[in-house]
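Researcher: Let's try something more involved. This one mixes different molecule types, so please make sure each is placed in the same coordinate frame as the others.
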Amino acid sequence: MDPEERLCADTWTKSSSSSESLKTPPNNTSFNDFNTQQTFSFNNPFGAQISVTSNANNQKQMSDPQESNNTQDWDPRAMLNDLSFLEKKIHQLQDLVHVIVRRRAQSAGQADEILVQQQQLMTADLTSIIVQLISTAGSLLPSVKQTICPESSISQQFGVTNQTAGVSDNVVFQHNNSVNKLEDPSDMTGFFGAEQNCPIEDHEMKSDDDADEGENLPPGFKRDANLRMHMRGHGDEYKTPAALAKPHKESSSEPILIKRYSCPYIGCKRNKDHKKFQPLKTILCVKNHYKRTHCDKTYTCSRCNTKKFSVIADLKTHEKHCGRDKWLCSCGTTFSRKDKLFGHIALFQGHTPAIPVEESKGSAGPSNKVEQLEFKYKSDAPSGCSCRNVMDLEGSGEDPISYFSPLNFETSCIDGFQEFPRPPFEDSESSFSFLLSGSCDYPPKNGRYTGSNDME
Amino acid sequence: MKKQLVPESSSSRFDLLSEEIVFIILDFLNENPLDKKSFSRVSRSFYAIESRHRKFLKPLRSEHLTKILNRYRFVSTLDLSMCPRITDASLGVISGRCKEMLRSINLSRSKFFSHVGLTNLVMNCGNLVEIDLSNATELKDSAAAAIAGAKNLERLCLARCKSITDIGIGCIAVGCRKLRLLSLKWCLGVADLGVGLIAVKCKEIRSLDLSYLPITSKSLSQILQLQQLEDLVLEGCFGIDDDSLAALKLGCKSLQTLDMSSCQNVSHVGLSSLNSLAECLQQLNLSYGSRVDRALADSLQNLSMLHSVKLDGCQVTCSGLKAIGNWCVSLKELSLSKCMGVTDEGLSSVVTKHKDMKQLDITCCRKITHLSLANITNSCTSLVSLKMESCTSVSAEAFVLIGQRCQFLEELDVTDNEIDDDAGITDSSILAIACGCPGLEMINIAYCEFISDRSLKSLSKCSKLNTLESRGCPLITSSGLAAIAVGCKQLFKLDIKKCRNVDDAGMIPLAHFSQNLKQINLSYSSVTDVGLLSLASISCLQSITILHLEGLTPSGLVAALLACGGLIKVKLHASFKSLLPPLLFEHLDARGCTFQWRAKTFQAELDPKCWKLQLADAE
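Model: All components are placed in one shared frame. Result:
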């Protein structure tokens, strides 16, 4: 275990920054902390890992949120206040990072120790701001309040790491990536949480989230390219070719170990023994791939009763548009909009609009909506904290651990899991999605997105 | 006429003629529908020849469908518009018998069949070219999908098929690529998408009726790109306005007829773009639209092929009419019905320039006088149709001019033309018209109170007369009506409402001679059970209106209703509703007969002056 640990730590430092003297005490501890988690996790596949992370993060805070949870009601005005507070804090954060960048430029020749000291001061400031940010963001939604706690605790633990890790020219990215990295572990817990979450509640959360995304919260972005496009509107400094360039490139000037994963199922194309081996990018990919291709499809869509899924996130994605794509062509293609269907028919010879089996289909739509609303109210009631715990417990029990017999696992997949700590920028896309949903504090959704983005 | 007179022995001489020659003889026997019936009664071979010759069938009762389809095996056109009870089973019979022979079928007025029957029909009758499904309000998109299977379809009428949507029309557009005529009037479920797809897929379209559809310029621009389009009806399309017309870049060179009546959002600004959009336009309907003034008339003057203009119900100015008079084209048809502001000066300037006028409608142009009529009859001598209901300022002598100068007249509407207390139209006017216009087919002399039996006797000389409306002429008696019945065998519509002196004596000759009568109004007359029952011998009688017949008893009514097998529509006073047995309604309903109940109280004395004065006040 030791050599592995070191390997991880090494890759981390190498990839994160150009400076060699980053190993400040807080940094080191946090790294160790992180790595121990990882080592645990790779030893105990999926389910076990969750329990470890959640234990590490949750145990202390478990009592607080439960108390605060039931008392508060949702207040839009308070939410507005929180949002403006968030805005302020983000600006503060930006300024700080600007300062860091400037200092770094000035102090190119200075002694390492002074630099380290300055950075420590900075990072202390940063950490507090980030904690405030996250806790405020979490308070925006009462039902999922308690989920914040683990993250804030992480941020306290890892804030320093982040700050030092990803200092680069692109300030915005720096900021975002650091938060991502920082929350990676909880990302995982979020994902696993989503797995066990009951479909109804999850669905409700998603729809709720959709409503909020555009209106109240600061814009979040699924892809870094989108963010860069957005940032152009904030000033000329974001329009330079450097600012618009893919951040990957800068970091990859450093030698990074690109980690790829293999499916434990022998004979699968994603298995490393396959002739045309196509590796998987992340551990989530492995998990989703395995479930999709080698497991039974147990989740059936409750609306159409025909589509089946093995990954619940896929079911959610399907349910989102199931029944809504009611414009059907004779070729089997469905469309959510009538004009799109007619455009399609005008384009192709011999395609005709298909008549729905029961002509009075219109009544089905509204009734579904009503159901959704009802669910929403129901799922608002239970406190998220208890839910979460139950989920985690179930997760450890029911997760596909049964499919991975230890032997099988070690022989086929060991190197894949070894490299669980991800290189900082490797899948920033999914991480961004987490940032977005993290600010709304929606672990289940976040997990879902990560899963779908990571799809092969 | 009566071919039975040919002796049985001479039929052998007919046998020498080839079947083709007999067919040609039969082709000429189309003036009176009864002639062919007589022909087929001559002999067995005549019967067989007539059965083979007939291509067109318009049955009056759907219950005999199997029998007649067995007899007429070469029918290619089947008009079932008289049978309101066509079901899926009837369609099954038709598709089973007619097979590939059937080319045209008219199912309008029936709403008891579904997509199942239509699918059956379309599958078996692969050569169907024409389908009329008007008023099938229950048909849904699945029925439209069934029609889409008729690959050879060229003419399709879906008027008032309210439940068909864009999806159904999309199916038809894809399936029926040879469509030339399509009517979507009142198909309220169809909008830009469906119409646009028709324009994209059916390039052969010649005639398109889009009345009252919620379409905009989006699909209009696609429609105008149809290279063959000749006839376009956009009545009541509120989505089309000046801006959408102005936005249209490409014109339609082939367009000949355009109906934009009731398009209230189109003014002369939009219409001026017609000069470039439809330069070959021949007929234009702008009824119930914007004001007809100089600007509008000038905006249309470059349409060099125009020969028919309808401006019904528009506000018309004198300068506007003068500008129309100055158009370089020669109009054949002009309709100014219910136009406010038509004066002698304006109308005269139009009719003196457009000497080829064949149809003129000046209904309710109350301001015109003797002068206008003199000008009309003087310059427009080839007039075929003249409608001048309620032109209350025209004197009696003026109508004599019509008889003297308009010898080609076929339609004349002089309803309610009387000047206050003086005599308006008199017997002498009608006498002149009846003598001068031997081709008269339709005449309306309603509410001309001074007309007597003399007029009817003179009109009986017009053997082509098929429509006579003499509502509210108290001087008319049964003897006048008998003269009409004997003289005018073609009569199919008769209105003798409020002719108090007409009684059963008038009905008996009518029942005997007018075997083509389809529609009759007997309200407020003196007809009793006997007269009504005698009418039952007219087999094609479809519609009767019998309100306030004092001599009518419930039992007589029941007998008459049961005897008239072909009835489709009966207008009755609501008081009979409770007096008749409910079982009778069920029976008649199953036969396809509908009832319209009126609860108006009896108006003892007719006083037209009262409402005429009210109207004058309103103006």
